Amino acid sequence: MISPGHLLRRLFRRARAENELTREMEHHLAMETEARIREGLPPGEARLAALRAFGGVTQAQEACRDAWGVRFMDNLRQDLAYSWRGLRHNPGFACVVILTLALGIGANTAIFSVVQGVLLRPLAYRDPNRVVMVTQAAPGSGQASLGFSVPEFMDHRQRNRAFAAMSEFHSMWFILLGRPEPVRVQTGVVSDNFFDLLGVKPLLGRAFLPGEDQIGAAPVLLLSYEFWQAEFGGDPGVVGRVFEMNNKPHTVVGVLPPLPAFPNASQVYMPASACPFRAAPNTLTNRTGRIVSHVFARLKDDVTMTQAGEDSRRIGVELCGEFPESYPVSDRHTVTLEPVAQAFTGDARTPLFVLLATSGFVLLIACANVANLSLARLVRRDRELAVRAAMGAGRGRILRQLLTENLLLALIGGTGGLALAAISVRLLVVYAGRFLPRAGEIAINAPVLLFALVISVLTGLVFGSKVPLPDGDALANALKDGSRGTGAGRTRLRAALVIGQVAISVPLLVGAGLSLRSLQNLHAVDPGLETNRVLAANVSLNWSRYNDFPTRFGYWDRAMHEAGKLAGVESVALTGKEPLNGLVNFTIPFQIEGRSLAPDAVGPRATAIVVSEDYFKVIGQPLLRGRAFLSTDTAQAPPVIVVNQTLAQRHWPAGDAVGQHVSTDNGKTWRTIIGVVADTRQQLDQAPVDEMYSPLRSSGGVLVGSVLVRTSQPPELLARQLRAALLAVDPQQPVTSVESLLEVRDQTIAPRRLTTTLLGLFALLALGITSAGIGGVLAFSVSQRTQEIGIRMALGASRGAVLAMVLRQGLLLVGVGLVLGTLGAWSLSHLMGSVLYGVPPNDVLTFVAVVMTLLIVAAGACLVPARRATTVSPVTALRSS
Amino acid sequence: MPDYKSELFQGTLDLLILRVLAASGAMHGWGIAQRIQVLSRDVLVVNQGSLYPALHRLEAQDFIAAEWGVSENNRQAKFYQLTRKGQRQLADETAYWDRFTSAVGLVLQNRAPASS
Fold it and tell me: Best interface-test mutation with B: which of A3, A11, A18, A28 has the largest number of B CBs within 10 A?
């Protein structure tokens, strides 16, 4: 083994060692020469003989340096310096390569940082793989997630044998008093063991104590990290302070560390007993009052997911047997488990992996391009390499030097890519925060840096590995004057790279095309209402102050009145459910007079929406039959109802819905259908659902409502005035948000738009890089064939024939690539099925458009070098050799 | 002429250098080459191109140490000397070489009747 000390000495005494080596060799030659002279040779010949006997002095010196063991570092330094000089002399090449790689690596790093933050990074829970969500569904009644009632949750908690702990969760907003202004806080209502279950330790103070979720316990609060920072500026003195909520004092007992916004973003947490809705006597006993929206559980150490799922299903079956009146057979109740990590990402998983794959493809295309460029450069460098080989550089040494150069380029490109990623990630987080619970965790962190480094190095190796070195003969040829030094192997490789680029571009463009078509389809969807001229102000009434029908109605009445006084407002209405906001969709069962159901048949359900008289007029929902509501449709008047067309068609296909009677309270009161309105969509990408409208003035009062104003000018201009008008009605009552229906509509397709934009960007990038690649290869081929083209033209080939010849050469490659790419895309596109809307994955139009686009762009890229070929002058071409 | 490129020779050259240095104290490269040639009665001609890399390799492994001095004809020369580590290495290598050659000899003796 070479001792480290020796290595170090050698490293630091580099210059001296070189000097000594030369002197040592010189001494040997002098001794040898003297020996020859003693043998009788004349001095001049003796010297030559000594040199001959020695062999290659330089090679021997090289071998000695190798023996020093410092070759590696030394070569690296030398190679780096050499590469740097080479690149500086060839700035065009360096810039193109670095830019291409920066784009490719940047795109990958940005998307990876999202995937890493959202999907790969372990949750901020202890042992998150053991945490599951328990879900109750009733597919028979069309409900994917029922939630749990308090009795159901308690039964599951007592009867299960699989869980070490179970906790309930539901989210409520309350008004917190004690700050300069009343604050509406989104509150997570949980069992006292919630944070122990998740393994989350409070940053300050303590978590909830056992027993604090029992009815009658003193109300306590835990603040989320974000709320603590935003509202209290991170003041640790907040622990122990008391705030009024729901007419009761609540003591802050602690502050939580940053947590993912799951199931939604909670600003504060309280134990179940502190929530007035959860603690109401009726809620505690009503088996179908399903207030608990999420149930968290931690598996016992020795229990598998499958066993736990089986156990929960058993309890569900037991309950169905014991309480048949609460679980109609037709509802087909089920209880299932889902790993918490999966519940987190939900719909985001597929688009994210599509994006990651796409950005990976872009990088591959970029690599192919850079490989092509390096190959072209290598051909021009054949003579340089041959000289270096002749000067004693080994094959391995040359290969190492080329690899160093590639790695240097890739690392510079990677650094640029990291900068690009850092900028784009900030934008991505802002955008993705709306639909990804963990968007806050997206950052350029150590794993992302490592990823960028690894892909940079891999990129350098990938585009460098395919460089076929010239063999001995080729080297010798390269030294001969006027040699072209091009090998058939390299030409084939370059052709293969172009075919590969085209082939990979096809699926990218198809993906972007399909996504774009989906988005277009969504934009073209007519939601059935006016979105351009309607502004919505959302208000969640403080229930403890507006605790009965007259006070609530009084607020809405005054709010509508004030809003109506604003200049530019044409009409005003109120609704209990903001149009186009399909995130909350609550259906209720109803009965139709005169129709009886088979015992196990599914009863009808509908979304119930409370609206004021002018609602249909304000949002422009046409009345198809009968009449709309009047201000006389009060609680004292005969009960009336309006249904939408989908509901009317479903139950009265003959068109005689008006005048029929329905009940939503098992036949205690029957309400007359007085009108049928056209369908509107609650979500753009979903068909209209059954809807049932009841008049505001006969309802129990709306707690969460949207004041809608129809304006004569762009609605955004009125936003501030509308908010001010509502605050004037009650300064203690916050206004949650003011937004135009156009904004609401846009928000519903925001995730899709982000995905489509990114896919489109990647596809454009791929298209640009590929066309540059095609053009580059062809241009190089033309420059290599100048002489041949000159001869052809001298022999009478027309310009058209030369043009056609070059174009044919280029388009042949493109054609092969297109065929391969189309086949690949055809078999891959079904993976995108779940994120498409209104377009099949194998949409022929998209495929044709993509193929045509690529063909046209490729033809354009081929045209430039082809035209240059036609300008070759036979005379100069023949002389140039 | 022996094939100097063979693996065997490389190891053998190292052994010969160590042996020569063990017998005669500090020597310079040319002197070592001469001594090997003389001791082998001109059978082994050391290729200078492999001599110096071998010396530098042995030096890097701390089997020999080098020092600049003045040679017999008043020239500056690099003199090599066996280290303690080199002495041990020489003993090991010599023992290995003896085992190796006697083993090869045994095989070759076996061949004798057939080849006559």
Answer: A28
DSSP string, A192-204: TTHHHHHTPPPSE
Closest C-alpha among A535, A538, A536, A534 to residue A734: A538
Average pLDDT over residues A281-293: 85
CA A622-A624-A630 angle, to 5 degrees, is 75
Mean pLDDT for A753-763 is 87
Among A685, A770, A412, A27, which Cα is nearest to B74's? Answer: A27
Q: What does the mean pLDDT of chain A come to?
A: 84
- From CA A659, how far away is CA A451, in angstroms rounded? 67
Residues from chain B that touch A33, judged by Cβ atoms under 8 A, are: none
Nearest to B77 among A27, A54, A69 (CB): A27
Distance, in Å, from the CA atom of A154 to the CA atom of A159, rounded to the nearest integer, reads 9
Could you give the C-alpha distances from A511 to A186, A345, A351, A522, A715, in angstroms and in order? 39, 22, 11, 17, 36
Q: How far apart are CA A870 and CA A849, in angstroms?
A: 31
> How far off is chain A from B28, nearest CA to CA, in Å?
9
Whole-number pLDDT of residue A4: 55
Chain A residue numbers with beta carbons less than 8 Å from the beta carbon of B56 are 64, 67-68
Task: Give A397's strand partners.
Answer: none
Cis peptide before A281 (omega within 30 of 0): no
A189's tokens: 């209502």
ipTM above 0.90, yes or no: no
A58 to chain B, closest Cα gap in Å: 9
CB contact burial A359-369 (16+ within 10 A = b; e otherwise): bbbbbbbbbbb
B71 contact residues in A (CB cutoff 8 A): 27, 31
